[in-house]
UniProtKB/TrEMBL annotation:
Alphabetized UniProt keyword annotations: Oxidoreductase
Family: Belongs to the 3-hydroxyacyl-CoA dehydrogenase family.
Domain 3-hydroxyacyl-CoA dehydrogenase NAD binding: residue ranges: 6-185
Stated name of the protein: 3-hydroxyacyl-CoA dehydrogenase
Any one GO biological process: fatty acid metabolic process
Domain 3-hydroxyacyl-CoA dehydrogenase C-terminal: 190-284
Organism: Mumia zhuanghuii
Length: 286
């Protein structure tokens, strides 16, 4: 068992809300932070939805356990207050180096000396912004997969400055909240999961953008040939459009830049954000 009892999650988007709820469901006290009241209202809706999902899909969650997890979450838009008593801060803010550096500068100034800092960044290396915390020895990456209650990996990746004891504590914490810790031995963009997944998604988007095959054909080919339950565009819908857009628009590849333009124009601007919104590349109903 670790000494961690209070966890703060920064950012309550699709994955941030899942991290916060999974941690609370495991019995920890959680503070969920986001920038303003409209964002927090969406977070409350996501948490309520996760209660329903856990009751339907997680053994033992029905009969009050899922609701008890919800009761352990407090929400706030006051960053200093959010981290004031945190044993562990997990950051899941937008995938922007500038935003992450600014966030961690503020957190480092407000959090107790004992606090461990973890980023859920999926594409940026922790060493790119560890110095912003003022305590790089207590900073590392803790990366979760979407649908955390089913795809329960937690990739732990330190930097050359991460204290080994901090790393070990975070591995133990991941296990305590029901994750399977994936110990990444050295820094690598994409960790293990996205190093495998991103080339698939890039290849699929290039096939589509270049007019080689349509979405349904690409997905069908992958499912039939590999036995995978989802094709790459179904995976895009699970991830949501915002993260793939942010990654594609910063790519040096003209095809990926074109993909980003299409995602922005035809999907994000039209409110088709993926499965969570009811429509992305496919329609999901209510």
């Amino acid at each position: 068992m670790t000494d961690i009892t209070t966890v703060t999650v920064l950012g309550t988007g699709v994955l941030g809300s899942q991290i916060a709820y999974a941690t609370a469901y495991a019995g920890f006290d959680v503070v969920a932070y986001d920038i303003d009241e409209p964002a927090l209202e969406k977070a409350r809706e996501r948490f309520a939805g996760l209660v329903t999902t856990y009751e339907a899909e997680v053994d033992g969650a029905a009969g009050g356990k899922a609701e008890a997890g919800l009761a352990r979450i407090n929400v706030t838009s006051d960053l200093a207050a959010a981290v004031a008593d945190a044993d562990l801060v997990i950051e899941a803010v937008p995938e922007s180096l500038e935003i992450k550096r600014a966030t961690w500068t503020a957190v480092g100034a407000a959090a107790p000396e004992r606090t461990i800092f973890a980023t859920n960044s999926s594409t940026l290396l922790p060493s790119d912004f560890m110095e912003a915390t003022g305590r790089p020895d207590r900073f590392l990456a803790l990366h979760f997969a979407n649908r955390i209650w089913v795809q329960n990996t937690a990739e732990v990746m330190g930097t050359p400055k991460t204290d080994p004891a901090v790393y070990a504590t975070v591995v133990d914490f991941a296990r305590e909240i029901g994750m399977v810790p994936i110990e990444v031995k050295k820094e690598r963009p994409g960790y293990v999961l996205n190093s495998l997944l991103v080339p698939l998604l890039n290849a699929a988007s290039a096939l589509w953008v270049d007019g080689v095959a349509d979405v349904e054909t690409i997905d069908k080919t992958w499912r039939i040939a590999t036995g995978a339950p989802l094709g790459p565009f179904q995976i895009f819908d699970v991830i949501g459009m915002v993260t793939p857009y942010n990654i594609a628009r910063t790519s040096d590849d003209p095809t990926q830049q074109k993909f980003a333009e299409i995602l922005k124009r035809d999907f994000i601007d039209a409110g088709k954000l993926g499965a969570a919104s009811g429509e992305g590349f496919y329609s999901y109903g209510a």
